[in-house]
Design a protein that fits this description.
CATH class of the largest domain: Alpha Beta
CATH superfamily of the largest domain: P-loop containing nucleotide triphosphate hydrolases
Distance between the termini: 58 Å
Helix content: 25-40%
Shape: elongated
CATH topology of the largest domain: Rossmann fold
Structural class: alpha/beta
Order of helices and strands: EHEHEHEHEHEHEHHHEEHEHEHEHEHHHH
Strand content: 15-25%
Oligomer: single chain
């Protein structure tokens, strides 16, 4: 059995938690220390705060009170306390110049002695003990909205091929299907390859409408529109299919799909993006803004180079996220020279999420029948690979089979003998 390696999940800089992005808001921070100022400034570059207008300056509580005496307050104020002033007194003064509805985050000092309930009483929405890192600032601001609005904030998983024809769509469709079936999570697959998408074929669906109707609509897509466009594949899985027609050219701006993703996030716990193998403004944006990225590669030189380049670019664009993941597909193809998994992983400086063996009969049967791998062969080792990938990407961790004991067969025989020996004797007639 080929196992999934999960080194990234243990990295404290890239936690498993799901942090949902914020809506369009304004955030102003007043810092006491240079470290906090740098952390807040860096947070403004994080993808989850992409829609926020964030400014950071020095001065702490005193500067905030002075500023807001003459101007309205933003949606969120971040205040750092250095412990030299009574924080409760300062918050009372801030309340006198703060507009209703403004949310307040306090970055405290270990020397602060104010009870948390007193901070809450004065309107503080979140309190974080300093010193803080960038991810602490991102988490605190985002939690104000995902928790207080009590809405579903769906997790987006983007799957893309390092090269064309490496099976990225097959991986995306099987992982999404497994998440929906085994984890009972309501999920949506979005086929973003509008000209040549195969999700409709793989799920044996032929919907009249799909992603093209949403992205080409003159109006902003809302929940009602998205519900009409989704094709139901199973109890928990829906599909936003690609038209797979060539009657027009599908050129889009960088933000073309943002409204679609944002709308689906509000109603769907898991969204899987089947991203086509192309490098454009909108595909890069879809990858960068996803919660998890999986790059699918074959074990050859071109895939090695492309995977390395993509990992490098996406890591740089997402400094506060878990690093992108990759899996190696179609390993062990007959008579093909391959780069071995160990060498591939050494170049990537990380282990693959999964290593999927080549099986032309299994995969071609599934593709031609419009089925998933588990429907063709429930007990195949690739089925278990997709189950482990689904658990990992949905934040559930890997499901492992219990180890088989060497004493198992012996104990079984002893138990059988004991059972026979303890059977009640019949009375003689």
């Amino acid at each position: 059995m080929t196992e999934i390696h999960d080194e990234a999940a243990d990295d404290p800089q890239h936690p498993e938690e799901h942090i949902a992005p914020v809506p369009r808001i304004s955030v102003q921070a007043f810092c006491e220390t240079e470290q906090t100022l740098k952390a807040v400034t860096a947070a403004g570059e994080d993808r989850r705060l992409a829609k926020a207008h964030l400014t950071a300056k020095s001065g702490g509580l005193a500067a905030a009170i002075e500023v807001y005496e003459t101007m309205p307050t933003p949606n969120v104020i971040v205040i750092e306390s250095d412990g030299t002033r009574d924080i409760l007194e300062g918050l009372d003064d801030l309340a006198g110049v703060c507009d209703p509805g403004t949310r307040v985050v306090v970055i405290g000092n270990p020397n602060d002695t104010a009870p948390y309930r007193e901070l809450v009483r004065r309107g503080v929405n979140d309190y974080v003990v300093g010193p803080v890192e960038t991810i602490d600032v991102v988490r605190s601001i985002c939690s104000l909205f995902s928790a207080s609005e009590a809405i579903i904030t769906g997790r987006i998983i983007a799957v893309v091929g390092a090269k064309g024809g490496v099976g990225a769509s097959t991986v995306a469709h099987n992982v999404a299907w497994t998440i929906a079936r085994d984890l009972a999570l309501d999920s949506v697959v979005i086929d973003l390859d509008l000209a040549f998408g195969t999700a409709g074929l793989d799920y044996n669906q032929d919907p009249a409408q799909g992603i093209a109707n949403a992205v080409l609509s003159p109006d902003r897509p809302d929940t009602a529109l998205m519900e009409r466009l989704l094709a139901k594949c199973s109890e928990h899985l829906s599909l936003l299919a690609a038209p797979a027609t060539l009657d027009r050219v599908y050129d889009f701006g960088a933000e073309a799909f943002d409204a679609i993703f944002d709308t689906l996030r509000m109603t769907t716990p898991c969204i899987v993006l089947d991203v086509p193998h192309q490098w454009s403004a909108w595909t890069k944006r879809a990858l960068v803004n996803a919660d998890d990225i999986v790059i699918v590669a074959e074990p050859d030189l071109a895939n090695l180079r492309n995977t390395k380049n993509m990992l490098s670019v996406l890591k740089t664009a997402r400094p506060n996220d878990r690093p992108p993941l990759y899996c190696i597909n179609q390993v062990g193809m007959h008579k093909r020279a391959e780069i071995d998994v160990k060498s591939f992983a050494k170049t990537m400086e990380s282990q693959p999420l999964a290593v999927i063996p080549f099986d032309s009969k299994l995969f071609s049967t599934a593709a031609n029948n419009g089925q998933m791998i588990a429907e063709v062969s429930k007990s195949h080792r690739t089925t278990e690979l997709f189950q482990n990938m689904a658990n990992r990407l949905a934040g559930r961790g890997e499901v492992r089979k219990p180890k088989r004991s060497l004493l198992g067969p012996l104990l079984k025989r002893l138990k059988a003998r004991t059972g026979r020996g303890s059977a009640p004797h019949r009375k003689a007639s």
